[in-house]
Amino acid sequence: MTDTPSAIPARTPLQIAELYVDCWRRKDFSDLRPHLADDCEFVGVLGTASGPDEFLQGLNGMAAGTDSLEIRKRLADDTDVITWFDLGMAGAPPTAVANWTHVEAGLITRVNVTFDPREILAVG
């Protein structure tokens, strides 16, 4: 099998989770789109999304309001990555966030996010 220019290099779940955050910081998710399963799901405190288009729409909305994103810890195995980070949004103090990303066959199939949104919502 030979690589073609459009071929997506295989990435580990950890590398995909790192790309997820990198895209968020850049506020550009074009590099993440090829790593989303057609039936990917997002479940979070502020909403849910089904499929890549809704998933990216939600991420773009969060990224647009993001002032800072500081990774504290990341733990990974063969299919799952937990990323603990501090999220600064809308001028609110940084909020601790836990993001669980599940990857199958190189594609994100599910992301669950939990945090206390009260300070963010109070500012917005």
UniProtKB/TrEMBL annotation:
Coiled coil: none annotated. InterPro entries: NTF2-like_dom_sf, SnoaL-like. Residues 18-110 form the SnoaL-like domain. It comes from the Bacteria. Transmembrane segments: none annotated. Gene3D superfamilies: 3.10.450.50. Signal peptide: none annotated. This is SnoaL-like domain-containing protein.
